[in-house]
Amino acid sequence: MPFAQPTPPTTLVIFGATGDLTRRLLIPALINLTRGGMIGDDLQILGVAVEPGGDEMLRDRLDDFLSGLGDGEPLATDAAWKGLRQRISYFSGDFTGDDVYLEIGRRLSGNAAFYLAVPPAFFGPIIEKLAEHGLTDESENAFRRIAIEKPFGTDLASATALNAQILCKVAESQVYRLDHFLGKETVQNILTARFANMIIESLWNSRYIDHVQITAAEIVDVGTRGKFYDATGALRDMIPNHLFQLLAMIAMEPPNGFDAEEIRNEKSKVLKALRIFTPEEAEAHAVRGAYGAGTLNGAELPAFRETKDVAPDSRTETFVALKLYADTWRWAGVPFYLRTGKALTARDTEIVVQFQPVPFTQFRETDVRYNLPPNRLIIQVQPDEGMSIEISIKSPGLSVETVPVSLDFRYADKFDIGKMTGYESLLYDLFIGDQTLFQRADGIEAGWAAVQPFLDIWAKDGKTPELYAPGSTGPTCADELIERDGRKWHAIGEATKKDGH
Ligand code: BG6
């Protein structure tokens, strides 16, 4: 991480410190940052959760978890972890009472970042209590910041209400709403790809781009998250947050500068330009599916509706595909096709930008006259992070024939990014006070506003999602959605299959 400055002395107060997020992502990310020299001995971690215990309980638990991790390198004996471990303290308490906040107040001085790794019902109440106890009051020598995990609301009304509840207690500049997709290296690279490369940005508009596809396909099924997922569904879980962040970075205008406000202004502008559909339009621009029973990765998988904690008559979708428009000068008429789903054939998060066909084919009287494939830019977010450009070349030989080839860049071929959790840059930015990779209130609300028409019609229409087989590419209605426009989805998993990747 060149040119990065070490973080200022900070106490990271983690609400929900005994939970999965803390051990799986936050602590490993802090270890990586420590190893990279990005945080020093002056970072203190104060964990709070309902589980009884003290400092050693949490430290031992983390030891157990960390030693079970990894690729041969025993994290528990690692110098970075050892240093960090002794700066972890813990106490238990009820987030809704006052004692927790009085205790935090006794232990805290100087800079603090409060990390809410708790169920969303606690977001508002914890922030209110922190404010009531003066713990969010900043001074010239002490910042007070709050990091909030997703889900941020469950629809437009609840997200707006939560923003209002938070922003009457603290300033927007103190709020760091996380979307972990923004911690992914390839997502951050979208802006560099666009704004550091003339050959990309000069073609970045409706004159040259036919359409954009954004896919987040997962092999994992709903697993043990039945209760959460049945109440949430693929649309709420992935679209207004993760996929809209990708869309915003693809579609935003160049910011005036690379600071947080300039970038977030442009992202919010494009999210606010997403067309808000009437109920009839929403019906025509969205399809949904749910996986049935079948085999996934060689194992039997029960249908989503037969999953533990899912209602047998559930109408919740595990797959969604949408066709959206950003009504701006740049993107007029360019469809953005989005899809995401679980229990699919491959893990594949990618953005495919398909360019217009050439205006005129020079190859009359040859075999290539009618079948020139379009150019495509493919940003492979995960796995096998990278970028490729598909172009046509002449195949060697005496006749004029073209073949599509891929100019391919993979991060793993050039850099060692394997061990990052994706939370390193987010935590680092939280400590140094850079909000670029965090969502602002207006952006969140614009995202919910664009998906609200789909939520509304699905709540009313009484229809059930189309079933698809586990291990497939999703329901046939998703293919129909794009094929009726004369287009095709980029095959899920294709970019990673080819070239042996
Ligand atoms: C989470 C969703 O926010 O993102 C999960 O709640 C989903 O359902 C996950 O599996 C996907 O994240 P990633 O980083 O594994 O692609």
Short summary:
It is built from 16 helices and 17 strands. It is of the alpha/beta class.
Your description of this structure?
It is a single chain. The protein has helices spanning 20-35, 55-67, 79-85, 99-107, 123-132, 156-167, 185-195, 198-201, 226-251, 260-272, 279-285, 411-414, 424-432, 441-461, 476-483, 494-497; strands at residues 10-15, 43-49, 88-92, 112-116, 144-148, 175-177, 209-217, 286-291, 294-296, 299-301, 319-325, 335-341, 348-355, 376-382, 386-394, 402-410, 466-468. It has 501 residues and is α/β, with parallel strands linked by helices. The protein folds into 2 domains: 10-180, NAD(P)-binding Rossmann-like Domain (Rossmann fold, 3-Layer(aba) Sandwich); 184-353 and 440-498, Dihydrodipicolinate Reductase, domain 2 (2-Layer Sandwich), CATH 3.30.360.10. The strands form 3 sheets. It has a 9-stranded mixed β-sheet with strand order 16-15-14-13-7-12-11-8-17, sandwiched between helices. Strands 3-2-1-4-5-6 form a 6-stranded parallel β-sheet. Strand 14 (376-382) and strand 15 form a beta hairpin. It is globular. It binds 6-O-phosphono-beta-D-glucopyranose (BG6). 6-O-phosphono-beta-D-glucopyranose (BG6) is lined by residues 150, 180, 218, 237, 349.
Q: For the terminal residues, how far apart are their CA atoms?
A: 26 Å
CATH topology of the largest domain, by name, is Dihydrodipicolinate Reductase, domain 2
> Residue ranges: pLDDT <50 for 5 or more in a row?
none
Sheet of most strands: 9 strands, mixed
Q: What is the topological layout?
A:
Layout: E1 10-15, H1 20-35, E2 43-49, H2 55-67, H3 79-85, E3 88-92, H4 99-107, E4 112-116, H5 123-132, E5 144-148, H6 156-167, E6 175-177, H7 185-195, H8 198-201, E7 209-217, H9 226-251, H10 260-272, H11 279-285, E8 286-291, E9 294-296, E10 299-301, E11 319-325, E12 335-341, E13 348-355, E14 376-382, E15 386-394, E16 402-410, H12 411-414, H13 424-432, H14 441-461, E17 466-468, H15 476-483, H16 494-497
Parallel strand pairs: 1-2, 1-4, 2-3, 4-5, 5-6, 7-12, 8-17
Antiparallel strand pairs: 7-13, 8-11, 9-10, 11-12, 13-14, 14-15, 15-16
Helix pairs in contact: 1-3, 6-14, 9-10, 9-14, 10-14
